[in-house]
Structures are given as C-alpha cells and as structure tokens.
Design a protein that fits this description.
By secondary structure, the protein is an all-alpha fold. The protein contains 16 helices and no strands.
Length: 362
Amino acid sequence: MIELRKDLPLHIMTLLYFLVAGTISITVDAFDHFAPTVYLSLWMKSAALCLLVYLLVVEVPISAVSRSRRPLSDAIIRLWSRIKIRFLPLIVMLVNLSIFYSIFTSIKNILPILSPEWKDLGIANFSQTLHFGYTPWRMLHVIMGNPIITRFVEFLYLPVWLFLLVGLPVLLTVRRDLAELRVRYVMTMFLCFIVLGNIVAALGMSGGPAFYAQVTGDQVRYGELIDYLAFSSGLPFSAWDIQQYLWACFEANRPQLGSGISAFPSLHVSMATLFALAGRHLSLWLGRVLMLYCVAIFFGSIHLGWHYAVDGYASVLGTVFLWRLAGRVMQRSNPSTVAPAEELPRIGHDISICSARASASS
C-alpha cells in the first residue's frame, strides 16, 4: 500500500485526463475516436522487452563485474528481488501509462475538430524569419542530406525513442530507490503530453513540413525535402512511409496506433529533453549521452520533415519549465521527498560497488 500511495498522484492525473477527454469527445460528437485501451497490449509487450534489455545490459554486467559464477542466474534473482516488492505497483503503473497514451492519441485525433484552422503558413514564416531568412531544413541538409545519415537518424527517431519512452518509466518503477525521481519524471511526462501535446497543439494546430503541401496547397516550399525522404520507402522505420500512413489515417478519419497529426510543439523533442533531464540524475555519463541524443532528435525532427525548428524550441523550453514545476509541486507537498540532484541514486553505483569488492577480494 505504501508503494501504491507514492504513485497515487500519477494515477489520479490519468483518471482526471480520462474523464476530461471522454467529456470532450462526447461534446464534439467524436466519441468513436475515444479509445482508452488501444495501447494496452502493445505497452505491456514493450515493457517486458525493456525489462529483458535492462536485465542483459545492467544486471548481468553487475554480476559479471562481481565475478559471479552464474551471472545470468544471479542477475535474474537480483532483478526479481527488486520487482517482487513493487510487482503490483509496476503492473498498475504500466496499465496507467498504456491508458494515458491511448487517451492522448484519442485527443490528438480530434484536434482538427477542436481547431480546424491550420497555422502552418504562419509558423513556417516565423521559423524562417527567426533564422534570418534561411530555411532550417536546407541548412541541415548540407550536412545531413546523405542517405546513410538519414537512415541513422530515422533509427534514432523511431525505435530508439520508443524504447526510451517505454524503458525509462519501467526502470524508474522497478527501483524503489528511485521513487521520487519516478514521480517527478512521470508527472512531467504527463504534463508535457497534456499541456504541450494537447492544449498548445490545439492553439498552434499545424501539420509540419511533411504535410505542408496537403494543408496549404503549396507543393513547392518543402517539396524537395519530401522528395528526398522518399528514398527510404519500403525500408524499416522510414519516415516517408510513416508520414504516408499518418495522412491515410487522417483522411480515413479513423484513430489507429500512433495516428494523429500535430506538429507544434514537438513531443519527440519534448520527450528527448525529458530523457536528458532524468538521465543526469541517474548518472553523469547517461545524462551526457541523452543530452547528445536530444540534440540529434531536435535536428532529426527538422531533417525528416516532421517539424519546423520553432516546434523544437518551444518543446525544450516548455519541458524544462514543466520539469521544474513538477519538482516544486513535489517539494511543496512533501519537502523531504525531493532530494538534490547530487544525492539521487546513480545507475552505475551498483557496478562501482561490485567492482570495488571484487578488487578487494583479489
């Protein structure tokens, strides 16, 4: 019960989100778009995969460094000893997250009903003015306009991003010593999707460069970029293929996995920023790696035609603000729950301890 109580604010947020989203969908006569369990099965399978990767990448090396004769068996036993204490809270949290993202997708699919006027022309013009008349994607294309680089960016943008989106909450939920960081992380994530992905997105409704031609009728402005991206059609994680899928879902007016078109602000960049903010509390090296990853996702969002540059700027600023807001809310509700960054547990701590013990015994 104590473990469940720590996560209670997050479950309350999802419940309120469910009620508000359901009410909105009924009000605008779009209840057929409301699918609060569409991600349930996929999310559970993805979470299980992330646990397996965590076992092999973190727990097994800990056993190996400590010179265990059965590194895999010892790693499984150690991981289970952590999970069994939080097994019920873990399952509840995973169900919570799957429902939350399903609700988000439902709302995203009815945004064109709530805000039918596309604002791409104004956003694209503002982005170009902000960069002194230069078009950001053309500036990046000089460096990134190579099929090998583009394919690497597509890999970072979809499977790696999805793995982190699912994996970080799973890691934070499994470890009891990361309870405060977990609540702050998930609370910020929820706020980013609701505030940035729903409210701000409705105010700045846009399709992004990938759908600029469809929503404005201008085939030229981003035509060269879209034509270039078509080279990856038929290949895994192709941005061009996914964009065709999303537009087909939009025209068919049917919510599907990942469907919904909304470019401003960028939740891809927002979550990459959040990964970096949380990562620096886990370990110094992880924070630096995730910061570099955030930069790659920001540039990738422009290069792959998903977003205008200002979409990313707004996301970074909004995410940092909401991260700090979540920290202040937690500190006011219980000042003892939020530890300074340098006092939070680090993921490499177990490995260093095991290494020291192994050296001492040799």
